[in-house]
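Example (one chain per record):
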Amino acid sequence: MPRGESAKGPDDDGYIGYVLSDLARLIRTVFDRRVRDIGMTRAQWLVLTRLYRRPGASQTELADMLESDRASAGRMIDRMEKGGWLERRADSVDRRVNRLFLTAEARRLHARMWSIAEATIDDALSPLNAAERERFADMAARVKGQLQTLAGADAAPTPAPRRARAA
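Predicted structure:
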């Protein structure tokens, strides 16, 4: 029987799927608490991080990155634009599309947020020595790469079934 499983199924403490899910959730929870001190919500920091990594994304692309619907993303974009954190610019090819960019203020806030993120990860990984951290990061990157490959394969369109030709 695989590690972390009982005869009835996976247990919470040893099953890698639960551990990974809990790990991600707990890191977000600790980070949420820490960035609350600089006035940020999870929705806001998610938008800032996505647009920092992908400046010029459209509202639809941002909604996809946030795993949100376009209307919810649009409301968040409106609030963040009014707060001086985002600006919309018309797409140079398709004027119906607005591209989203962080303002200088948002980039400053992202820098503060990034130092909090680094401290959070440092604190989370403190039980590991430097070599263990490096191995953990390498293994996690390899698993991420595999999942990206699987997600790409899963996202590929399924070919239509062949129709029988009439004789």
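Caption: The chain has a mean pLDDT of 87.
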